Sequence to fold (78 residues):
Amino acid sequence: MPTGPSADARRVLVVEDEPHIRELVRLHLGLEGLAVTEAADGQAGLDLVRAQAFDLVILDLMLPKLDGLSLIQRLRSQ
Fold:
């Protein structure tokens, strides 16, 4: 079982406003060897996606500042 991300690990962004849920998701993805970046609201998630490349984005639909559906729409329009 992997113990943490390697240098060539897949990059995942977790956008979740509930700290306990975000931490749990980060922990389990990290145990699978994925490199996890976190954002606590939709706008921060959008800013991160615009600045960095991710292999996967996991997000909540009900987020502060920018909801999950709006975030997806903005990403798709780029």
